Amino acid sequence: MGSPLGPLMANTFMCSIEEKLESEDKLPSFYKRYVDDTLAAVKDISTATTFLATLNEAHPAISFTMEVANNNKLPFIGMELTKIGKRLETCVYRKTTNKGLLLHYQSHVDARYKRSLLLTMLNRAHCLSSSPDIFAEEFDNLRGIFLKLKYPEKLINSTITRFIESRNQQQVRDVQRNAPVQIILPFKDQRSANIVRRQLSDFGKKINSDIRPVFTSKKIADDIRVAEAKPPLINQQCVVYKFKCDLCDADYVSYTRRHLFQHIDEHKHSAIGNWKTPA
């Protein structure tokens, strides 16, 4: 068993060399490394060959080999990159010698490890597939592999269904989390609005949220009391009326030359005053 410090020390060693090459402007514009596998984008084979020589000359202990794309396809760490025009597609890569040998369902291993293997392979397919169609194709491949390993079809289908549902729910949560947070504020003037907008933007960057102010102005209608709709009779003058008072339970039949609503108001105030007067 190798030391767990081995990969850490190797990565530290490579980082020191890459920092030196970067300071000398010898690294390509696109350069990504995982442990000892490096993916780089260069303009032609000649440039790639020159960069390979630069890597191997950086230290006597380094010995890199190079693999170039074939038919616009290049395998890299269990993934195949395909160049289509100006975009890249990715999918799970399996060597031609791959026999699909994984944990057999009839092996004497706890069932949770078998379910975990299913989920691990599904998650790997999801991470390496650049589109839903490629993801679905890899699902079919995994289904065939696990059926050959005697996994129950019901277990395979239920695991796939739960995995897809969990991913859909996660996507919904991600969308909700990334949705802008709107704060409603009264509008005072443009200068104040610009200051508040800038302050909220700075605060949002600190908490990794998109905070946007929504300014509202006061409407004239808010200050104007809407008059209660009244029957036309209320505003008429010189009428004979019958009025039932809901304060003193009395009926009145009378005549007034003024507006009817004025006469009724006076009666109500009079009734209230009578109630306040002790008997």
From TrEMBL:
This is Reverse transcriptase domain-containing protein. It comes from Porites evermanni. It comes from the Eukaryota. InterPro entries: HTH_animal, RT_dom. Residues 1-88 form the Reverse transcriptase domain. Pfam families: HTH_animal. Coiled coil: none annotated.
